[in-house]
Amino acid sequence: MLKSLSESASAVTVILAILSLTSTFESFTNAPLIFRLLITGILALLVASTVADRFGTWAKADPELPGFGRETLPTSIKRLEASTVLLILIYLILIGAAWFQTDRYALIVIESRTGDTATLHLKAPSRPVGKMTVPLPGPGSDCDWHSMAEPDSLRLTARTVDWDTPIRKLNVLDFAWPQEIDIECRPSTSLSGRVLVDSGAVEIFVGNERWWWRFWIFILGGLIWSFAMWRLYSSSR
Any idea what the Cα angle at residue 52 is, between residues 50 and 55, rounded to 5°? Predict the structure, then answer.
């Protein structure tokens, strides 16, 4: 009976934790990217240290009743295989969640140059950016922009300001996925390091920066998954 009550209490605790996470999801997504990835990594470690052990214990065959000639049955191969598949699915979800945050919750900035033309491509995050400012070169340059989104509902609200100053600015309002914008300037000049947003929770990835984040997510996720598999097979013996 005590065991049943303990299991019921654990189930209630898990449900309450899930509800708590659901209610604070918006606060979580508004946190800085490094914090969100750290929480995801901690969750992956908890899975490795607790869930993997539970799966390993479940994979063990129930011991035979004591008696003459009785032997302990070997580990259930089917349960061990099922546990391995479940752990793979769990870690694919966790790695996918971290991967997703470097895509939909980040502003992607890609700069390219062709001849005397510099092009800055900006891909909006899922979280709307209330105001994005891109400083442009001085009056001696010719800059133009155009939206990459075709439907009218995705049209950008953008305008160039400070025409009379050495540094003009392009202000873009309510920039949100799937909106994209291309800014072209002649003569060619660097623009990628000048993008400003009004939200500190929006990460800005310039060039290959997102690739490096994803590389380390994959490497660290693979290491934690390997640790979980070690815990699974160790606890199933």
Answer: 110
